[in-house]
Amino acid sequence: MNASPTTGSRRYSKSVRRGVNSAHVVFAVGLLGIEWVMLAIAVVGRTTDDRALQHSAYRLMRVFVFTGGIPFAVLALVTGVLLCLNTPWGLWRHLWIKVKIVLLIAVIVAGAGVISQFAHRMIAYSAPDANADALPPLQTWHIVLVVFQVVALIVATALSVFKPSGDRSRGRSAPRRRPGGAEDATAAADRSGPTSASIPTRRRVAAG
């Protein structure tokens, strides 16, 4: 994600840009790993018949939400926006950047606003002395949301790699020039066509 600043606008130094970019990669990839672990825990909680294991899985999941998922998502979003504002891509110039930002925001909203509440309720319903009748619908919707998060992060990662609306060359490249400013002889000759030196001179036929 990154800004096409006008001439004279501030840019990060090379070391700062590398540091912010490295942080963005770490948080984004780390978030994908956390969500994959969350999906594995959700599947275990849905398929196991061991109530103690189920209850422990949902308690662990809630810890992951608040100590890993939400912080990593926010930091990935912040570092991504910082890269956009100080590098040539721009914040809103390209569609893939807009989609990536929207996906990260959706992951944050799903994790902080919905999944954390689901985890809290599933902890209560999976307790040994609780009524577990309301648990299966919560488990199903919870898995759906976590799958959405994983898919959204995979798409965001792919967009960062392929950059589908990135800069493309327009037209033919400009002719090469020598250090003194003169054009490359081959390029100049190609454009100007045949010269007088390349046209054979006809011999005059002497009048006899």
Characteristics of this structure?
single chain; disordered N terminus; 5 helices; 0% strand; elongated; 208 residues; mainly alpha
Describe this structure in words.
- Residues 1-9 and 166-208 have low confidence and may be disordered.
- The protein is an all-alpha fold.
- The protein contains five helices and no strands.
- It is elongated.
- It starts with 13 loop residues before the first helix and ends in a 16-residue tail after the last helix.
Helix/strand/pairing class, anyone? mainly alpha
Overall form: elongated
Sheet of most strands? none
Helix content: 55-70%
Please give a quick description of this structure.
The protein is mostly helical and 208 residues long. Helices cover 65% and strands 0% of the residues.
